[in-house]
Amino acid sequence: MNKLYLLTSEFPFGQGESFLWAELVVLKRFFSVIIIPQKSNLQCCSEFDACSLKILEGVEIYMKHTDEKFSFISVLCEFFKVDFYAELNKDLNVSFPFVGLYTLAKFLAGYRLVKKKLASVVYEHAISAESSATFYSYWSMESAYALSKLKCHFPKIKLVARCHRMDLYREARIGSYMPVNKRFLNSFDNVVSISKHGADYLVDNYHIDACKVYVSRLGVVDHHHLNVPQKNTAVHLVSCSFLVPVKRLDLLIVALEDLQQHTDKKIIWTHFGDGPLRDKLVSLAGELLDAIDVQWMGAVTNDVVMRFYAENDVDAFINVSGSEGIPVSIMEAHSFGVPVIATNVGGVSEIVDDSNGVLLDRNFVSGDLVSAIMYLVETDTYEKRVGIKQKWMNKYNAEMNYIDFCRQYLCVDELLDSID
User: What residues contact residue 80 under an 8 Å CB cut-off, 6+ apart?
Assistant: First the structure.
């Protein structure tokens, strides 16, 4: 079986890339997968749950150099290296503060760690100049940059990269500065965005060759359940995100305060996710939402969220983020037939419309969100939820999307033909 070298941030460790589990299930069917995490949280494989362990059967996790971390000193050292000024010189027309200089230095320090790891992989797996091995970078940052350099020495390797949000949109970065401006992606065979909006952004803003840029959507697994509220005594709203500024949970809390004036029903708000703003947001909710049943679920596994949708009535899922790619959390809600209210940012308009929810302007006011909630509650029907799930099935089903990704962008069919 052909080998696939999958470069991740920390997967299969941590929870930041939990949506990769569904993709790995499909990748294993076509490839002998070697996962190369850029870093880990020191979690041992023995701590994975039974489901994760089963998925990891037959998968190699390349751990050499994984626990090495770049320090402030190593980042500082980048200011004295030729690479730093070579890249800086290419971006002299870009105006950015000192934070941009630090971002570039940190990026290059991270790249050097990946470069060291790749050098070990090449040696231990006997990859030669004639090798046609396939490398798949799940993010278009340090790992992808390191692969572009590797291809200079191994021109026949196949490179594929995905683009999401933080690794794509300048405005999602501090100081709106994107290190090395994505020029390196032109050395990739396929550059795959999770949204059409992202694909257009790549071509328009980074001048990546359009013939190399494609759209391949993420997906979630079908749990074969339709969430249809059986009771009419409460309005139950759900959100799921890191508790960080860009997610703008404070705006949701303010809108929920206003919602109390528009319904006599009990209001329940359940939030999945944790982050640095937790204490501040819990305090704000305690101050404004004293009559609302607020449930802070914290950081949980994906299985917990899926079980929640299967066992609880949910009227709507809400995402008021200021920046997004296409949120997997929206796919998860839709997979259970739950309507979604979301801000029109990034590629969100490609997954939310008036057939499966309400799309809000990025600069919405509290009344807009309240009206959207009341509209969904008042117009909810069994047939509408069936339609929401069917639309998800057609566009964001993991099985369908990841098989298509393997065939079209990892060229599985070509590999199988060469074996025959």
Answer: none
Q: What is the residue-averaged pLDDT of the chain?
A: 91
First to last CA, the chain: 12
**What is the mean predicted confidence (pLDDT) over 286-310?**
95
Q: How many beta carbons lie within 10 A of that of residue 360, not counting itself?
A: 22
Task: Provide CB contacts within 8 A for 67, sequence distance 6+.
Answer: 39, 40, 42
Give the Cβ contact number of residue 151 at 10 Å. 17
Q: What is the pLDDT of residues 222-250, one digit of tens each?
A: 999 999 998 788 999 999 999 999 999 99
User: 144, 182 in Cβ contact below 8 A?
Assistant: no
Other C-beta atoms closer than 10 Å to the C-beta of 215 total 15
Q: Could you tell me which residue, 203 or 420, shows the higher pLDDT?
A: 203
Task: Report d(CA 16, CA 245) in Å as an integer.
Answer: 17
**Cα–Cα dist 110/362, whole Å:** 33
pLDDT at 329 over 80: yes
Q: Which residue has the tokens 């929870």?
A: 15
366 Ramachandran zone, left/alpha/beta (phi>0; psi -120 to 50): alpha
Strands 234-240 and 266-272: parallel
Q: What is the predicted pLDDT for the residue at 192?
A: 97
Burial of 67 (0-12, 13-18, 19+ CB in 10 A): exposed
Alpha carbons 192 and 299: distance in angstroms, whole number: 29
> Residue 380 and residue 364: Cα distance in Å, rounded?
23
pLDDT band at 328 (very low <50, low <70, confident <90, very high): very high
Cβ-contact 399, 26 below 8 angstroms: yes
Alpha helices in 319-397 (DSSP H): 328-335, 366-378, 382-395
Greater confidence, 225 or 128? Answer: 225
How many CB atoms are located within 10 Å of the residue 284 CB? 16
Strands 158-163 and 134-137 turn out to be parallel
The residue type found at 161 is A
302 membership: H or E segment, kind and range:
helix 302-311
Helices 98-124 & 82-90, crossing angle to 10 degrees?
120
Please tell me the distance from the alpha carbon of residue 400 to that of residue 219, in angstroms, as a whole number.
Answer: 8
Residue with tokens 């050098």: 119
pLDDT band at 67 (very low <50, low <70, confident <90, very high): low
What is the C-alpha separation between 59 and 271, in angstroms, rounded? 33
